[in-house]
């Protein structure tokens, strides 16, 4: 074990020296699995990287491009001109004086499945995977979600206190999965990141003995009513979770009050869930969870409600933040999932922000669930477009960040104890000691690496009739600008981006491509 740790740290420092001295992009080792595009193969000795952006003089911009044809965050530079191209099909006007929401970041979830898959690799390959997400030549994720105890992406049901009647939580203890699969991976990510990673916890279910169903799955709620002994115990369960993680030098930034609270009112729901109506959640926060967090010294932890589809907005927020309760004083934000977005209009986000401008909206879960016959679709470019479209749409309607689901899954899309397999930006092939970066991985990077925490969305008018062409702009904390363009169409689009202080960027955006531009004003 000592030799293995020395080997890992030796590789770490060699890579660190390489990054600092050369800062050159290592290209994708492309492989096709017969899908619309390619994946990039990483192993113990090789892994592609993203070249850091350069601070160019005024009049020049960095450009990072990914395409259906196989480019992956490839960097180049482009110069501004004094005039737009006469043949421009799209003109984008950047207006930094019009500022909207402040961004919190982008990231993914440290599930049991993620840890199991990362640890199935050799130590050098593990390093490359964690570096790919959190390192300076990776995507530089700044958000991380932690399931509180088990979820479906565990190998079995478990809670932190499986002792019936233990309302005082005398037997509360973190599980083996926390100590082996979550905490060590989080610590490694923190050790290589140059940014603070904002970590937030989400519970799927209380221990079975606390619930009306006496089961962590399916239909069921907490026993009794808000203010009662089971609600008090459940509130203190959150506090104990925060305390236990703090013992490992992991301080959480936030919590959601419940993952997908509507699932717990579905009969025969197959995996961990617990039902809440908004009035229940309001009273639980006001009478139990908010006071418990305050008494435990965690009043600075950002508490979020909902953590479910935006189809529930603005109704859910209106109920929780009603004037008949003081729940609002304990809540910082509203968490949303992307499932059912196709039937939930963005108006729900706009109305919610207008009614509660002091509460941030954060997208906390997304994954591809519909691939057939296999849930894992290696090289599927359409999935990358779905991710980029969702991020642009959400951020254009007041959402402050976007967290993916599992950071890494196996070739089947698991492990998952109820076989609820899905896709992931990184797929691990443990038998070959390889992992595969999906097009989704690079779609995430077009935002996570360049739209740093503290960036603000700014207005950008789009003069176009071109279909399947989307764009968004941000001003970063140092005053520089980042513009992301998604072209889902099958034709190239000649585009002119105008910054009044700098000039015009004239660039043909290839079909089926994603481009991030950054420049200093």
From TrEMBL:
EC category: hydrolase
Pathway: Sphingolipid metabolism; Lipid metabolism
Catalytic activity: a beta-D-glucosyl-(1<->1')-N-acylsphing-4-enine + H2O = an N-acylsphing-4-enine + D-glucose
Glycosyl hydrolase family 30 beta sandwich domain: residues covered: 454-517
InterPro entries according to UniProt: GH (IPR017853), GH30_C (IPR033452), Glyco_hydro_30 (IPR001139), Glyco_hydro_30_TIM-barrel (IPR033453)
SUPFAM superfamilies: (Trans)glycosidases, Glycosyl hydrolase domain
Enzyme Commission numbers on file: 3.2.1.45
One Pfam family hit: Glyco_hydro_30C
An annotated Gene Ontology molecular function: glucosylceramidase activity
Signal sequence interval, chain numbering: 1-23
Gene Ontology terms describing biological process: alcohol metabolic process; autophagy; glucosylceramide catabolic process; lysosome organization; negative regulation of macromolecule metabolic process; protein catabolic process; regulation of macroautophagy; regulation of membrane potential
All copies of domain Glycosyl hydrolase family 30 TIM-barrel, residue ranges: 105-451
Name of the molecule in the record: Glucosylceramidase
Organism: Sinanodonta woodiana (Chinese pond mussel)
